[in-house]
């Protein structure tokens, strides 16, 4: 699906220009990982906006639920950006509307499918425990 929704405007995104890292944290410590990223070779899953937290996470085999396929039509990919939020694109109105439906909303909440870091600092992303869909059909 590649994170595009024809019914909402495409967010303004500043692409990463330098190497950066994303630390993923989950309630289960075995899920915690740090991914080093090079903007010249960003991993992509083809889900969510290109370079989004969801796109990068799925390409690195870090599961984040995303019922709508990463097109900003649900709130299942809700994550909390604990560090580095200022280096991500601003949330558009459609994302904010979807976030209103997410449980455990915080000031640092974003939809992983719409949040694209610009690489100017490292990110620390918390994947809430309720976000993990452990019952999923095969790929």
Can you tell me about this structure?
This protein is α+β, with helices and mostly antiparallel strands. The chain has a single domain, classed as Ubiquitin-like (UB roll) (Roll). It has 2 helices and 5 strands; from the N terminus they run ββαβαββ. Strands 2-1-5-3-4 form a 5-stranded mixed sheet. It starts with 19 loop residues before the first strand and ends in a 12-residue tail after the last strand.
Rg (C-alpha, Å)? 13 Å
Q: DSSP strand (E) fraction?
A: 15-25%
Output the structural class: alpha+beta
Weakly predicted, low-confidence segments: 133-139
Instruction: Write down the domain tally.
Output: 1
The profile of the biggest β sheet is: 5 strands, mixed
Question: What's the rounded overall pLDDT mean?
Answer: 89
CATH topology type: Ubiquitin-like (UB roll)
Second-tier CATH architecture = Roll
Question: What topology, given as strand order, has the largest sheet?
Answer: 2-1-5-3-4
**Secondary-structure element pattern, one letter each:** EEHEHEE
Helix content: 10-25%
What is the count of DSSP helices, taking H or I runs of 4+ residues? 2
- Overall strand count: 5
């Amino acid at each position: 699906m590649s994170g595009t929704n024809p019914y909402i405007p495409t967010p303004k995104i500043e692409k990463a220009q330098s190497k950066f890292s994303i630390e993923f944290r989950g309630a289960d410590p075995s899920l915690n990982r740090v991914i080093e990223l090079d903007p010249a070779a960003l991993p992509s899953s083809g889900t969510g906006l290109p370079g989004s937290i969801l796109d990068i996470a799925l390409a690195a085999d870090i599961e984040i639920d995303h019922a709508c396929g990463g097109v900003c039509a649900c709130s299942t990919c809700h994550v909390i950006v604990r560090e580095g939020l200022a280096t991500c694109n601003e949330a558009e109105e459609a994302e904010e509307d979807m976030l209103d439906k997410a449980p455990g909303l915080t000031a640092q909440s974003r939809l992983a499918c719409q949040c694209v870091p610009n690489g100017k600092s490292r990110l620390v992303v918390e994947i809430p425990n309720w976000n993990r869909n452990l019952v999923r059909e095969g790929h």
